[in-house]
Every structure is written in C-alpha cells, then in structure tokens.
What we know:
Chains A, B, C, D: Mg(2+) binds at residues 302, 364-365. Chains A, B, C, D: This is Amidophosphoribosyltransferase. Chains A, B, C, D: [4Fe-4S] cluster binds at residues 255, 401, 458, 461. Chains A, B, C, D: In the C-terminal section; belongs to the purine/pyrimidine phosphoribosyltransferase family. The structure is a homotetramer of 485-residue chains. With 485 residues, chain A is an alpha+beta fold. Chain A folds into two domains: 13-252, 4-Layer Sandwich (Glutamine Phosphoribosylpyrophosphate, subunit 1, domain 1); 278-445, Rossmann fold (3-Layer(aba) Sandwich), CATH 3.40.50.2020. The first copy, chain A, contains 19 helices and 25 strands. In chain A, strands 4-3-5-2-11-10-12 form a seven-stranded antiparallel β-sheet. A six-stranded antiparallel β-sheet of chain A has the order 6-7-8-9-13-14. Chain A has a four-stranded parallel β-sheet with strand order 18-21-22-24, with helices on both faces. The relative contact order of chain A is 0.12. The model of chain A is unreliable at 1-6 (pLDDT under 50).
Amino acid sequence: MPPANPFDDDKLHEECGVFGIVGVADAANFVALGLHALQHRGQEAGGIVSHDADEGFNSVRRFGYVRDNFTSQSLMQTLPGPIAIGHVRYSTAGSKAAVIRDVQPFFGEFSMGGAAIAHNGNITNANALRRELIERGSIFQSSSDSECIIHLMARSLQRNIPERMEDALRRVEGAFSIVAMTRTKMIGVRDPLGVRPLVLGKVADGWVLSSETCALDIIGAEHVRDIEPGEMVVISEKDGVESTFPFRPRKSRFCIFEHVYFSRPDSVIGGRSVYETRRQIGVELAKEAPVEADLVCPVPDSGTPAAIGFSQESGIPYAMGIIRNQYMGRTFIEPTEQIRNMGVRLKLNVNRALIKGKRVILVDDSVVRGTTSRKIKDMILDAGAAEVHFRIASPPTRWPCFYGVDTPEREKLLAATMTEDEMCEHLGVDSLRFISLNGLYRAAGAPDGRDTDSPQYCDACFSGEYPVAPSDMIEKGFETKTAAE
Amino acid sequence: MPPANPFDDDKLHEECGVFGIVGVADAANFVALGLHALQHRGQEAGGIVSHDADEGFNSVRRFGYVRDNFTSQSLMQTLPGPIAIGHVRYSTAGSKAAVIRDVQPFFGEFSMGGAAIAHNGNITNANALRRELIERGSIFQSSSDSECIIHLMARSLQRNIPERMEDALRRVEGAFSIVAMTRTKMIGVRDPLGVRPLVLGKVADGWVLSSETCALDIIGAEHVRDIEPGEMVVISEKDGVESTFPFRPRKSRFCIFEHVYFSRPDSVIGGRSVYETRRQIGVELAKEAPVEADLVCPVPDSGTPAAIGFSQESGIPYAMGIIRNQYMGRTFIEPTEQIRNMGVRLKLNVNRALIKGKRVILVDDSVVRGTTSRKIKDMILDAGAAEVHFRIASPPTRWPCFYGVDTPEREKLLAATMTEDEMCEHLGVDSLRFISLNGLYRAAGAPDGRDTDSPQYCDACFSGEYPVAPSDMIEKGFETKTAAE
Amino acid sequence: MPPANPFDDDKLHEECGVFGIVGVADAANFVALGLHALQHRGQEAGGIVSHDADEGFNSVRRFGYVRDNFTSQSLMQTLPGPIAIGHVRYSTAGSKAAVIRDVQPFFGEFSMGGAAIAHNGNITNANALRRELIERGSIFQSSSDSECIIHLMARSLQRNIPERMEDALRRVEGAFSIVAMTRTKMIGVRDPLGVRPLVLGKVADGWVLSSETCALDIIGAEHVRDIEPGEMVVISEKDGVESTFPFRPRKSRFCIFEHVYFSRPDSVIGGRSVYETRRQIGVELAKEAPVEADLVCPVPDSGTPAAIGFSQESGIPYAMGIIRNQYMGRTFIEPTEQIRNMGVRLKLNVNRALIKGKRVILVDDSVVRGTTSRKIKDMILDAGAAEVHFRIASPPTRWPCFYGVDTPEREKLLAATMTEDEMCEHLGVDSLRFISLNGLYRAAGAPDGRDTDSPQYCDACFSGEYPVAPSDMIEKGFETKTAAE
Amino acid sequence: MPPANPFDDDKLHEECGVFGIVGVADAANFVALGLHALQHRGQEAGGIVSHDADEGFNSVRRFGYVRDNFTSQSLMQTLPGPIAIGHVRYSTAGSKAAVIRDVQPFFGEFSMGGAAIAHNGNITNANALRRELIERGSIFQSSSDSECIIHLMARSLQRNIPERMEDALRRVEGAFSIVAMTRTKMIGVRDPLGVRPLVLGKVADGWVLSSETCALDIIGAEHVRDIEPGEMVVISEKDGVESTFPFRPRKSRFCIFEHVYFSRPDSVIGGRSVYETRRQIGVELAKEAPVEADLVCPVPDSGTPAAIGFSQESGIPYAMGIIRNQYMGRTFIEPTEQIRNMGVRLKLNVNRALIKGKRVILVDDSVVRGTTSRKIKDMILDAGAAEVHFRIASPPTRWPCFYGVDTPEREKLLAATMTEDEMCEHLGVDSLRFISLNGLYRAAGAPDGRDTDSPQYCDACFSGEYPVAPSDMIEKGFETKTAAE
Lengths: 485, 485, 485, 485
C-alpha cells in the first residue's frame, strides 16, 4: 500500500490515462511505453492486460511508476500476445488507503469469453448503479465506479462483447473514454459529450488507442484521428477499424482544463497543439492584465508556455527565476518532521542572484487552494524581489469536477470563497490576475470567445455549469450553482 | 548492487557532492536536505555520518537517491547528534559493479578518536600511494582513491586530526574539496588550485560546508563566503571557524565546466551566478555564430539558460521544441530489449505541432560522444523541421578530465577525432557551432578572455593543458598534449 | 508470486486451515496465532478479515508464512475489531502460478451488508456451478472453487446472511468446513459427511472456531466440542452459539488421513488424540508386520509416533537414525542446478555413526510417489546399514482425493500401478509393509475394523470408494473404481 | 539490519561455523551447502568468498539464512572459481545492532596478493591487540575481534601468506578454528588447545575443511580426519595437504558443550558420535537420578537423544509430550505486544491428551537463565500433569564462556546464584537433577570421569576453570573463580 503524498502540490489532477494496441508482436511492451508517456495523467498505479492465443489473458497491476514496474524482461514476459491494453491512475482524494484491487484494467469472464476494460473519466450515477447491481446479486471487488461497467456487461442479454458494452454504457451517466479488449478485438468509446480525450493511431500493422498523441510519438505511431464524442470503434487485426455511434447525439463539450494543465504540451487535441494554446493564453493574459516589471518567470514546469507567451506579448524578458530539483519524487515513506515541513522547498528553489531587487511576474497555470502560491511568494520575497505579480493561465477555479478529475471539496477552493482582490491580499502579492473565461476560449481556438448559450467546452470548474447532472453527488447533498446561488 | 544505466545520456558527470553541518540539533536531517539539493552532482549513492555524545559515530550508506533513503524517521533516528557530514557520488565509468563499501564518507578510528571524510575530486597519484600503503601494512576496504587519505592520516605522527589531515593531504596530488569531521569539529579543505567548489554557510548557530550554494538555500542558510583554494577551515561550536593555508600557494584554477554544466543554475560560484554565466554564453554564442531561423529551442534541461540568452541576443523567438518526460528515472533493472533501444525517446519528445516546417536552432551545453545529439537531430527532422542548427554552449570537449569528472576515454570523445566540420557532417545537421574558448571565458567573467600564459580556470577538457600532471594515468600510458602532438 | 517448490517432498497435502473468533478485543491477533498453529495445513498463503464498528471490514491476504506476515504491529493495526476470521492455504498442484486474488477469505458485499468466508475442503460440482453463475451474470475474481459459495449467496432470495449461506450450501456438493463472518456474527458449517474437521472453543468472553484443537491451545482457549457433520452454528457476542442442522442427515465419513498425517499430533479429533492414534498404528504395524532388526527409526518428523509405537510393541530400540535440518524452508527462488538436485539431502541427513552395520526399520507415514522413499533408502545404505525395512503407517495410497487434499494424478501414485512386492523391489529395500485398512481402523478407534457396508471414515484414497461422486472430475473423464475395474 | 529476537530461547549459542573447499568446479556452491548444514552454529548472517583466475576474489555477505541468500543462480554466479570459503555467525549478545561489515569472511589485500579468513572462536586479548594496531596506523572496519588477525597479517614481515598467518596467530590468545584462503591455497588452523572443532574431508579431487562432519555428508565428502589442536594445514590442488604445528604444544581441551548441545547429533567429533554421547548422557542421568514416573519426554528438539537414553535405562516409556511448531522462525520485525508475550508458546505446545494425569520426566540439555524451563513447566501443569520432574543433560551452567559462545552475564545464569534445591523451588517442579561433571565425562568417553589435575575437556562454563586467561575481560573487571571465591 503506497503512502499518501504528505506534500501539498496544490494542483487539480487528471485521474487516468488509457492506452491499447492490437496487431503487433509483444503488444504489452508498446502499452508500457505508451503508459510511460501518459504517466502525467496518473502516477499512483498502473496495470496492463494482454491476451495470447496459447496463454489466454494475463494481467499485471502495480503501484508506482510505469518505468519502475513495466520495464523488466521477466515481468513483461508474463504479458505475451498481440493485443494489450493498459491504464495509469491517480488516487482520488477522499478514498481510504489505496488497494491493488482498485487498479485497472478490470477483467470479467463472460460466457462468451473474457474482456478487460480501462476507463478514464467518472460515472456520475455510479452509486445508484452499484446499489442496483448488488441488489441483483453482483459482487463488487473494488471501490471503483468503473467496475459497474463490467457488471452491467455481465448481465447484458446481448450475444457479443461490443454489444454488451453498448448496452452497459447506455445505463452510464458521466464522462468516459474507454479502451477495452476481448481475445481478439480492441474497443474504444468516448461518451457523447467527449469530455475526456481519446485518439486513434497506427504503427506498422497495428492500431493504437491512446488518451493523448504524445503516447503515439513514443512508439513511433502515426496520429490517424481523434475518436469522436459518442463514437465506438471496434478494432481487430482481421477487420481493421469499425465505427458506430451508439448513443443519442449531443454537442461536444471537451474538458478545457486538458488544454490548461492536464495534457502534455507536446500533445495535439482536437487538431490544436496544447503548447500553442498555452502560449496563446500567455499572450491573452499579457493583453488583459499587463504590468510593468523586469522579468517574466514561469512557475515550473506547467507555467512555462504561458510565461513564454506573456514575455513575447509584453516584451518583458523571460527568465528562470525558480529552479526545479529534478530528483524530487512524489511520495515519502514515514518522512521525518523536517521533511514533512519542507513542502515546496524540496522541489523548487529561487534563483536568488537573478531575482534580487527585481520586479517579477510569476506565471502559473492555476490557483487551487493557494497554499503553494503563498509559499512561492514567500520564497521570492525572501530572495529580495522588489515586487511580485501573479498571472494565472486559467480563470478562478470555483467548482469541483465530477468527470474524472481529483478536486478538493468546494470549500477548500480558494476562488470559491474569495474574490480576486481578497485572494491577492490573502496571497500577499503586489497584483494577482486570472485570465478571463472568454480569453481562455479565444486562446483555445474560439475567436469569439465562449458561446454562453451553448459553450464549446466543459468549463464547469470555472463556471459551475455542469453539462451532466452529478446525480450521485446531488443525492449526497451537493448544491449546484442554481441551487447554491 | 544497482544496475548500470543502459541509456547513453552522453554527458560528462560530476562525480561527487559534499555537505556538512555542525552546531544544530539533528544535524543529519540538514545533511539529508543538503545532499538532496546536491543530487545532480551524484545520483548513484549517498552516505551520512553523524556523531552524538551518547551514541558515538553512526553511519548510513546507501545506493539510490537521497530522497528514497534519507527521509524516513526510522532511518534518520539512527543518525543522532549535532554534527554530521554527507556525500553523494556518481559511479566512475571504468569500475566493476558498484559496492557499498566504495560509498563515502569513509571512516577511520585513530588512537585519538574517529574521523570521517567526504571527498569531491580525484587524487592523481592514488595508485602510487595505495601501493606504498599496502606495502607498509594498511588494509584497503574499497577501490576508491579517496580511501588513501584516511590511511595516510592513520599513519601520521601528528597528535590531532586536523594536523594529521594536513600531513596526509601534503602527500596527495590532484583535486580535492573535502568535508571531514571528528567528534566535535568539522573540517573543510580545498586543494591549492581550488578545482572543485566548496562554500561556507551559516544557519542559526550552525556552520555549513557545501559544494554549492543551492544546498544552503534549501536549509535556509546564509552564504558566508567560498572556501579559498588551498584553505583549510576547522569549525566547532565552541571556537567557530579557524582558517589556515597549509599548502604552498598557487594561482587558482577553478573548473570552468562547473559553470557550463555541473553546477545548478541557482548556485553562485566565486561571486558569479551560474544561471547568468550560462545565459551570457548564449549571448556570446549568438554573436559568434548567428544564423537565420524561426525558433531557438533548448535541449532540456541543461541548454535552457543559454537558449534564453541566444534568443534575447538574436531576437529569434524562444520555444519549447523538445519536451522532457518528468517520470524518467536513471536506471532500469533487467530492461526489455525494446526499452533498451528506446534511449533518449523515453526521456524526450519533440513538440511536433510546433516544429513542423520551421528552421530550428537547438542549444545544448556540450557534445561528448555525439550519440544523443544525433538522436535528437533525427527526432527533430522526423517531426518535419525545415532546418536544424546546433549551437553548443561550450568549446569542443577534446580531453578527458582527471580531477573528479567522469569522462569517456579520449578516443570516444567526438571532438578528439573530428574537426568541427566533420562533426557537423557526422551529426547530419545544417550547421554546428561551438562557443570559442575566449567567448566562454568572457561569459564567465573574464572581459579579455583567456589569459594564455596563466589561464584563470582549469579548462583541460577543452585545451588539454592539465594544471596537475595526471601521474597515475601517465604511468598507465596516457599521452598528454605535448606528448600527443 | 511465490516460486513453486522444486523439491519433491512426496506427501499428500491438506489444502487449508480455517480459524475465527468473535467477542474479544483485537480479534485478528488471535486469528494470526491460530493460523500460525494451523500452518501445517497450508503454507503457501494466508489471509485475515476483521470487522470493526468504525472501520468496517478490513482484509489482508499475503503469500508466505503467517509468522512472516501477520506478526507486525503496523500490519495488525489495519485489522481492528472484535470479530475476525482467517485462512491458510496450500497451492493446488495443477494450477498456474499463484495469484493473490485466489487467497481466502473471500469477501462479498450484499444488500444487507458484507460477509467473508474461509473454506476448507473442495466442491466437487464447482465447474458446473461456475458455468451456471457466469451464464447468469456473475463475475468471478479468482480461479478458486470456493468463490462459487459467495456468488450463490449473492443471488439467494433470503433476507439474512446465515440463511443465504444455507441456500448456497444446499447447491454445493463435496466437502466443506467453513468459517464465515458478517459484521457481528461468526458462522461455522460442516458438510453432512463431516469430511474435514472443525472444532468449537471458548476463551474468556470469546468464541472460537478452528480446524484443529492445537490452535485453541496456542491462545489458551478451552475445547468445547467438535462441530457436528451437517451442523451450522451462528455465533454472536449477544446471543452466543445457535445451532441448526440445515442439510439432509447422513452418516458421517470423517477423513481418516487426518489421523494418519494431516492433523498435528497434539490435536484431538472426534475425542481421539491424534498422537495416540498414530502410536497405536505403530503398535498394530509391529503386530501385522514384525521383522528382526537392531533399530526402529522414524522418517522425520511425521513417522515419529508410529515408530515409537512400533518400538514399544516389538521391543526393538527406538533411535534417531535420520536427522532433520531445522533451517530448511519450503521454497527457493531461482535455485542453482546443484541445489535443485540435492532434494531430500538438504533436509535430512543419516546419523552415519549410529546406522553403520545395523539392521534398520524405517517407519514412515505414507508412500505417495515413492521418490523420497528411494532417496532415503539410498542414504541409509550409503551410510552402511546392513538391512533396510520400510514399515508404512497407512495402507497403499491408490486413489486421488477430491475433498480438499492435494494428490498427484492417479498414474503417479506408486500404489496405483504396483503391488506391494513390486513396490518393495522398486524401492530396493529388504522388506516393505503397509498397515492393513482394518489395522488402521482399529488404531483409529474401531475395535472391529472397517465396516465394509458402511465405513466409519472416508478412506477413498485407499479404497477408491468415494462417498460423494466427484462429478466435475467424472465430466473430465476420471474413472471411478467401478468404472476402472 | 535484522531485528533482534524478542523471544527468550534461553540457550547458549555457538557463535560461528566455518567451511572451505578447494579443487572443485564452482566451489562456492559446495560452500553454500556446507554452510546450510552448519546453520545451527550461526543463524544471523553468512558470507562466502571465492577466487577465480579470471575474476579474482569475489565476496557476498548477507544477513539471514544460507538457504535464503546463497541458493539463487544469479547470486551464485557472482562467486565463480575452484576455491571458496564461508562462514555463518550468531550475533553476540552485548553488541549494538548488527552491521554487514562485521560479517565474515574478512578480506585483506597484501602486497603479495589477497587473503580471506573465516574464524570460529574468540580472541581473548583482542582489545589489547586492537589498541596496539590502531596506535600503529591500522584502520579497523568492523567491531569484530577476528579482524585483528588480518591486520596482524598485513604487518607481518614474512613473505608468504601462510607464514604471515603463523606470525599473526602467535600473537593471538584464545580459541580459534580458522579456515582461510589465498588465490590458490586453503589454510586450516586450530588453536593449541583445540577448543573448537575443525575436520578435514575429501570429495572427488577436492579437499574440504569444516566445523563438523554433518557438512561433509551433505556434499557427499568423506571424513578424512580431524585437524589436530595446534595444527596448521595448507592445502592446494597441486600439492595436496601440507601439515605443520607452528605453536608450542599443549594438552588438548576440546569444548565439552559441543557434545552437549552445539554440534549436530549426526556429527562425529574426535571419533565420537555426538548422538551416542547424548544418548549415553541420558543413560548416566537415569542411573544418577532415577525417579518413578509414567513418561519420559524430551524438550524438543535438543533433549531428544538424552531422553531416549533415559527411557532405555529406566524402562519408563518414551513419548512426545511436547510438540514443536515447524513453522517458527527466529525473528519477528516489530511484533505486536501479543506476539511478544507468547514466547515459547509460539514454538511449543503440550500434547494435552497424552500428558493429562501423568507423572512426567522432562529431559532438557541445559538450564541457562531458567526462563524457558519455567514456561514449559507451566504449560505441562496447565495440561494436567500429575508430577513434573526435570532431568538436565549437563551440569549447572555457572560461568560465562569466552571462547566463542554467546553466554549471558554471570549474574543472569540461574546456577551462578542458586543451589540445585533453590533452582528446583524457583522452577516449581517436583524434582530437578543435573548430570554430574563426572557423569558427563563418562558419557563423553572418559570411563574414569574427569581428570581433576588435567581435565580432558574445556568445561569452564561448569567448573569456572579457564584454560586460557580471559585477559580482556579481566581488564574490564571480570573476576575468575579463584578471585571470586
């Protein structure tokens, strides 16, 4: 059981990454590489399932980084075969200690054979589904919402696995990008809103499904296209890619925070370079919230592209005012009191000789609880900065996400309880400005900004407008914006 | 026994970092933090020795990162007391498999009490010393050259440990920055040329010795001054810092590669910001070797400051054309063939959407064997770059270092066997330019460049001019420049 | 995943031991002790489930010995509460590599709350049940037959867990001694034939269920009585022990091999001391098969009580002719060729000075494949014995067990293919005699021997008369005695 | 660092076993088997050094059992070559936590090449030697007395290693049986009194040295002879065995406790079977201290041979009244309070059905602190025994051993502070009798008992007559018998 991270890193976290491949020798090796490239989407644990004609299904699920678990010959030899899928996950905040049976992919043996599924997203009616399934005699092995899907499939009356999956997913509300496999077929699905990403790639004779394109690059696969919102693809060596749209069509609402922070800057989503969107956010931010200063510095590493954009638009020199320690890991087992209290100083150090006496603009991607922002401000002032101006590459984060992102409870979100001015005072900086929601949409490729009547993205964390009602949470007492205001 | 890194990272490597503190409670905790901040100077192993009035000397030496070994309460409780020193090390290229008894600090029990020493540098007459000591009945426990010092001390006729250390070091040739301790005193020494860095800091009532200032920052210590070349300081809670200069005075020859690559950019050495020196190298390089292009991209992470300087001087936009995977570690145990062949792609990915169709200037800190440079060039061209121009922030590396840096044998250094033009053709890039030795000296604070008669720095890796004759190597057949040319 | 034992130890193996307790603080600690005392019933893996009013159900399942897993404070603190059950298991011969999800107790969440079960025995219609359950939408997590029970319970229409368990067990054929638990109740059941043992104990205010009485002794519990064949007890702190007999009554058929080898000699089963039964087997054997000799030596350790009895009846001195190495474990990871070939010599050594020139009677509990018997004979002759006579404390083992014992396939049982004389010749000993089935029954408390029409025990491994038809095996082609002969 | 055993097992412990072989392929594999057979002489740690013409010296030292460390192919491949020696050790009572650098064999590089030594025994003037060596500039790496030998060798003026060893051992007082090796030669030495055992064996073309003959048996080696007290043998493939007697001759004083407890019963020492000596002790004891009773039961496992002898002489039936749990290990990491309090009940259980109402004679090998004896008596009475009579197969243990045995301080030895009657009362048994010293000598082959003027054995632990003055201990204040009385 891995220890929790005692260090507040004060970010929202993507909860999962998925990857699958069919039609290549030793498919699991490719999955390991793909998951390594998707590690930023989930660092707590990973799993791979493969199928081989002789050996049947095999599965390995482990806590820790992909590179520490899925790189050794002896382990990878236990995952033979030409088809494999995998999953990396981040632990959810509220849960009890992590247990290996919660690690995906999940596997189920049906009367027509086995299937494994890996799920990125979150099922908003999982509690209700689980109650119903238990009532009817299903036995759950994990605390994961995703396990509902495999039980719904087990009870479907359909005769093959893709149809059973359709059956199951029609009962499911929320966000899902799924990669699944049978003995010979790989299946990819995105929910009708397409909240989470999923892309299709090709390498030699093999087909690939991946959360992001950066994982295609590492195995040298070509990016064919994105899986569409509401699309299901069934892929086999024999028949190639077969596409259907089993759900009622809806206008897509891709997660805009994927552009702000979750996805890797070298990925391309919906035809847009994530890096370029982030740089453009910096440009917009420099226009919206200019300030006189000597240096523009990113908060490493996620603030870098926006800081470059801000510097380019403002003409203020870009500089590395904060240096990241490359040897910092995520977790410490039973740390000393001193280590526990170090927090961000274990990871970041101010470039004192550079900062001293300077007016500094710090560009960060987001402010969640604000605890890290305060510590960074302290470090910068200790180093002798004349002024500190925060520029944030996203609007204030005011609402929790229920679609597969680990968010603190609403009352812990700084922007849920304070105005921008109050936050500025709370953080003790000379100025604090967030990009506007319209500015963010413009940077993300909507020249006219946000379409208020029918927004182009899911931006519930900023706007409180949830495209799918979070029914489990409402049952538990969560008040949506309309209720709250 | 840790596995060797199967991945060519194609850099020179500092072999060690040292840190010590006296006069604070739980001194070993501070040492752990200091070593974490010095981890870039040695990733293979680390050790800490502490002394407590009740418990005597205690020592822990481990393979792996500081953060994985020296952060747990249960371990740190075995290192009590108000005085402690520590060491991180990089394995030397030629040695057999790493063994824990080669990990420093080394400890010796003398008739007047115990002493521990941690050594950064390299003893160039170690083989001769070792032969002599064995002949006289000393038993070596390690294959490390540094162990000679403790045996020389054991056989000294002096009555106290600092004087025994003086005695010992007068027999030693080469480069050394040493932090040592007795039951109550911390000792710091730099060789007469001052090849390796060593700085003095102060935190509350405690005194600190450290390879670099970045390790003072992490514990909140003030940078008092650098230890001088040829200086020995003996520090105790009771008497504070006592300084002597036991060696014959010589003109200092600090390692210029510390500025180019080894030291962290947030450190200050000899009064100069490492970051600023590197940025200035980029400025000089843009003046010396301009080229028309669309983007200036660093090779992450070491090329970043010079790339910023190059962009600022040339006016060509700075961009993140190569993205580093943050979850890449150094070593893999028994890796699969596929992992073994991935090499740099496990660590770096090209930002394809940005690079496509562009003329790209890549700024890197150095070219050693050139293997990584070729792979990066291939990745950039595969992504569709129109042109690739390499600009290198150091002169061609033509000679091995014998003063504590891990260098390949001379014949494996690309620049030892090829001209700049041949290297350009070998790497297959549109242009390749190195900064001149004079340009480097200017960036490092010598406005008139290198003083040919009496160079201000040690630059043997570029010039072949060794300030201390590498006598062990000459005995083994190494030909110095004069001999070779 | 534990490695398989490369050393033929040539015994039948009990597959499981079960233990539970309710009504004491830190119940899991008692379970750990009880399982330690039952370790001889299963060495591969163990598991404990506990329930606490605040913490709910907790579960730990591990490969390896109880003493290596369930003794540390930090682990046992994760298993709080006044009720707990546990299980030790031996791996079944034919299965693939062991996986942790096959380790019991199994847990299921039902609509009226959770339940955990630990099963000793074997379900002879498990394949048919599993097929049916999967057809109806159950998802199996393990390859264990015992998991059927929890799925049958999940689908029962009864309103409480004990009734659901009755419902489930009425569908189950074969042998079972089960210890189960809900949040507040412990449940014990034995199949109608009572093939496997299960006893009831009392310690302070707590009630205990255990496979054997030796596990009552270790926690200082009093042996109250055996659970009856076909009996179900439901035990709670509040209501004490409630007993029902939910199955159609049948005459009991307790496993006679428990007396011969499986149970510990310090246990009492059905009112009989196991040690005394074994000693009495030696007495019967000396009467049935006397021989002139100098020494009676046990094959350690299981042959000791019968050897003592043989010596007492015959008057031939008892001696330790074979010495066991106490530091021998069960498994070796990736052993050298030499270790692999050592086999029994790693564990046993002949007392050469004692044996030389002597006529030796060796008393062993059973002959399964005969491989170990041959090696022991070789060792004894190498040491210079004049004659070697084998006396075996059980009849020839001719048939596999399907009721929870790990037996080789029938063709590998020496006695399935050879007569007693052929075996004697095959083993190369001066004489070989097995106790008769009647003699065994007499030693086990039936003064008139075996009741041929209605045997008092299950002795299928000797007689081929299976009291429950092994339907899964018959479906796979197994031929019972009538069919075979 | 292995945890200390929290369970009082209340025995004296041999501190070491040694084994070496020359002239066979993969010599280290034989050493591993030999050490496994000698594991009873030291369970804490073990080490093997081998030499190969290509690879030079290699060494592996590990905490834990031989079977857990020295059986894997991958490890044993690191120990190639035709010559190897090994050592198992028990930790000494008073020392701080165990550290790997204290684990033997010790290795030293001399000007004429390397040598490794493994030492069984104890150097009684080690403190004085260590002081002198440090004064002259030797650096000790361990806290082990045995390291003195290698430093004395390093400073010898002799030209070859066997002569240096003679030189060194002439300075050493105390008990030593040493197995050492150079690149091509194996050396065996016993101190002039021959306190510890050492035997010579032969297997194919290879020569073996071992603490006991049971380790010859496991590799199929023939027992050639014992090494004589004061003898040094130098053995090579080329020249065979060369014997010298470098020390001043003295009458031998072999440790009589090797016969009582330390050695394995299947070993032959000085021409006597250890098993037979122990059985004979039981016979003598039955003559010296008869008592009416129903059963004679050994305290497992060490009391078994004497119990057999007692039963045979007295005619009272032999029975297994106490059953040992085979799955008990020596150490527990961070055990729960309950485990800590279990003590002997984790290991032993009374055979209640057998014992109830009976008059029981318990035969044990020795009484050290008496703590275990009390617990066993309690268990026996709890089980309903009518009477309990202890018969002890050694005289009262009144004095500590300074020749390589782990003994409690004198004041903790029960017999040092109580008479036999007081002990009987303290233990709460119906009678308690120890064998007489003369009876023990008779059983050990001296028909006329102990020669008071010149005893045939070292029996200092019983008599307080130390054949070599324990000079280090006397310096620390230990009072010998003459002084004490």
